[in-house]
Amino acid sequence: MNNLILVQSTSQPSDWILFWGHFHPLIVHLPIGFLLIAGLLELDRLTRRNSVSPHTITLILFWSAVSATMACVLGYMLSQGGGYETDTLSSHQWQGIGVAVFAWLAWAVKSENLGRIIPFSQLMYLPALGIALILLLSTGHLGGNLTHGSDYLTQYMPGPIRTLTGVPDKLPELKVEPITDVNQAMVFQQIVNPILHSRCVQCHNASKSKAGLRLDTPDMIKKGSEDGPVFVAGKGTTSDLIKVCLLPEDDEHHMPPKGKTQLEEGQIALLTWWIDQGAPFDKKVSEVKVNDAIRPVLASLGGGGPLETGGAKVATGRNDGPPAPESPVLTMKVAAADPKVIGELKKAGLLVLPLSKEQNQLEVSAVNAQTFNDTQAQLLPKLSNQIVWLKLGDTEISDATLAQVARLKNLQKLHLEQTKVTDAGLKQLKGLDYLEYLNLYGTAVTDAGLAELTNLKSLKTVYLWQTKVTEQGIANLKKNMPTLDVIGGISEKAAAELAKATSSEAKSGEAKK
């Protein structure tokens, strides 16, 4: 009789209704116990002629009827949250009500209250108790189906027992072709679908679609839940499919639910990447963009050749080491990171991914932690040797965080786009000897901040779109760092003229040599 639920109402239920409804799984076990005890006592009395006080059985039947009624009421309240298969729901509902009705009837006959009204009512007692017990078993099975899926009891049933009981063979497991070359792997079929089937489909399938959501076929994934689409193509972190996975595990909306096997960080990263690329169902890895964040995760799936993006090969982090190992920091051997510290970073919502298992270098990304702030950034220096790539874009950090970042002595890539960092923060980065890539897109950096970049002797690329820098500021920077690749920040015409001027200066310098 577990989880008696009716069809969800069209209006949103109040918190009070759902609050009391969540007591249904607790109360529902009372009629199960009371009715089974009553049935066993009657069986013992009939078969062994033992003397059992009628008052005892009457009392047990009374509380079984009361608790069954309470379970029905609370089950109805719980049902207002919706998200269950309609036919199973309806059968479970009426059978649960039937348990309560026949429990009351058995009590009324046993207590002789009904005998005063209807002659020969004692003849109804055993049939009423028997029907209540039969309905109890049936509705309990349906409740289990609603909660765990229709194959919960039979999922691992051995073959001989299946044959004996007539239970059909279990559904074949998802068969996915092994990935031998990650470039040629189908993004959805070989990478995304196995994740969904291993973590999500148990509760979102044809027989059990919580919240009206099925994730077992592409068409059902596109359809979404009763509240609408679960993903927005191109916007991974704002899609519900990802957001529910990133909620605290104690949150009632967190998926998978607490107690179930949780998604690994790499799996969340893959799902986010898939949606960011438009959620393609028919493309290969080589046909979509492979960014720096997802490259090591893809490389770990198999097929150690270089990853191809749009026809260009990019070295993976599996057999070839990190992408383009031009910097000495990418081949430098460092000590393994403290697992406790990694756990602290993960608890703060950061993704911690290995760039190279051999050298113990790490990428730390806040792609799924937009609330990451200056206080949490104090955790970063605990991995000062291991963090090589750091992505803090679109978070709540300010210049205070850069004081912590400055302690990451092996940092090679730093993303600060769309944050509150200013020129004052950039002053603190001058000790990063290995920093080659800096993204300042959408920040308040000015020409004064650009002047601070000249202290970063290894810097090769800087992004300056939508900043407060001027053409003159960039010209001064290029004069001091002629090989620096400056992307954005000025008009295309000015950029062309600047490139031309820089090229002329370089040629002039070579001629003098």
UniProtKB/TrEMBL annotation:
InterPro entries reported in the protein's UniProt record: Cyt_c_Planctomycete-type (IPR011429), LRR_dom_sf (IPR032675)
Transmembrane recorded as keyword: yes
Tagged with keyword Transport: no
TM region(s), chain numbering: 23-43, 55-78, 93-111, 123-143
Superkingdom of this protein's organism: Bacteria
Cytochrome C Planctomycete-type domain segment(s): 200-259
Pfam family, one: PSCyt1
Keywords: Membrane, Transmembrane, Transmembrane helix
Protein's recorded name: Ribonuclease inhibitor
